[in-house]
Amino acid sequence: MSMLRFTKGNDVLGTANRGNPAESSLCTLCRADCTGKCETWMSSMIGRKLLYPRDFGVVTAGANNITHTGISYNALRIQGYAYGSKGMAPGLSNDPDDCIFPNVSLESEFGQEIKTKVRVPIMTGALGSTFIAAKYWDSFAIGCSLVGAPIVVGENVVGVDKESVLEGGKIVKAPELDRRIDTYLRYNDGYGAIIVQMNVEDARNGVAEYIANKYGDKVIMELKWGQGAKDIGGEIQVKSLEYAKFLKDRGYVVDPDPEKASVQEAFKNGSIKSFARHSRLGATNLSNVDQVREDFMKNIEYLRGLGFKRISLKTGAYGMEALAMAIKFASEAKLDLLTIDGAGGGTGMSPWNMMQSWGVPSPILHAKAYEYTSMLAAAGKNTTDLSFAGGFALEDSIFKGLALGAPYTKMICMGRSLMVPGFLGSNIEGVLRPDRREAVNGNWDALPKTVSEIGSKAEEIFAGYYDIQAKVGADEMKNIPYGAMAIWTLADKLAAGLQQLLAGARKFNLSEISRDDLVSGNRETERETKIPFVGDAGDEIAKAILKG
Ligand code: SF4
Question: Is the CB of 40 under 6 A from ligand 1?
Answer without folding.
Answer: yes
